[in-house]
Design goal:
The complex is a heterodimer of chains A (about 100) and B (about 140). In chain A, about 80% of the residues lie in helices and about 0% in strands. With about 100 residues, chain A is mostly helical. Chain A folds into two domains: about 60 residues, no CATH class; about 30 residues. Chain B has about 140 residues and is α+β, with helices and mostly antiparallel strands. Chain B folds into two domains: about 30 residues, no CATH class; about 80 residues, no CATH class. Chain B is built from five helices and four strands. In chain B, helix 1 packs across helix 2 and helix 4 packs across helix 5. The longest helix of chain B has 25 residues. The chains are: A mainly alpha (about 100), B alpha+beta (about 140).
Chain lengths: ~100, ~140
């Protein structure tokens, strides 16, 4: 109920150019007082379409996002190998810096 | 120059004339002087269980310690970090990897009675068995 009241005042706040196309479509599909309700429904649909379009554009960026956890996983695997490999160097390092270790 | 340094090692750091020799001595001196190892303060703090080895290759203070101890630990850790950074650069690893590889050795080399930090963060006293060490240790 309140939604109708809110959306009823909505077209007044937007520019006539924006609402006109929607109005024409609505008037084709439905006549009489019911048109306002349909137009009120159409508005969020249009907004959803715009949001969907921008979401589709954002999808290009989303492709890069999964890289993050993969990189972390690889680091853990490589690290243990490197630590193992560095054992002799670590021993030498300790031997050469006895005052610090 | 390199043969000169070799000679100094063999002689045992006894002075030979010349500025080049003096420069070589300065380079060789830290190894000769610290052949004994730790400073008395550091050795005492270790023996008393005031400081211990962490899993990351650095020293830690066990519980709350006086400023002199924390300052000493900070100083030693700064030196360690510099050494790890140098070693990592020469081996193409990260500083953390080099530090962890050294931690493997340091934890294994702790003597019974000394403190080490367990992976869960708690301080433990080294017993007869090898302390838990980071993953990847040889």
């Amino acid at each position: 109920m309140t939604a109708h009241e809110l959306t009823g005042s909505f077209p007044a706040a937007t520019s006539p150019q924006m609402t006109r196309r929607g109005m024409n479509r609505v008037q084709r599909e439905s006549q009489g007082p019911g048109g306002r309700a349909v137009r009120a429904l159409l508005k969020p649909v249009l907004m959803l379409m715009v949001a969907g379009a921008s979401g589709a554009l954002g999808g290009c960026v989303n492709l890069a996002a999964p890289d993050k956890p993969i990189v972390i996983e690889l680091n853990i695997n490589i690290r243990q190998d490197v630590v193992y490999r560095l054992d002799a160097d670590a021993a030498k390092t300790i031997e050469q810096n006895r005052d610090v270790f | 120059m390199s043969w000169l340094q070799g000679k100094i090692f063999r002689i045992g750091g006894l002075g030979i004339g010349g500025t080049a020799v003096a420069a070589a001595l300065l380079v060789a001196a830290p190894m000769a002087v610290h052949a004994e190892g730790r400073s008395p303060e550091y050795a005492a703090a270790r023996a008393a269980g005031k400081v211990g080895e962490q899993q990351d290759g650095y020293l830690g203070t066990v519980g709350s310690q006086p400023a002199a101890i924390t300052a000493m630990v900070r100083d030693l850790n700064n030196k360690r970090r510099a050494i790890y950074t140098e070693g990592a650069a020469s081996k193409g690893s990260t500083v953390q990897e080099f530090a962890t590889a050294t931690a493997c050795r340091l934890l294994a080399e702790t003597t019974p009675g000394e403190k080490y930090q367990a992976p869960d963060g708690s301080w433990q006293t080294r017993g007869a068995t090898l302390p838990p060490r980071p993953a990847g240790c040889k």
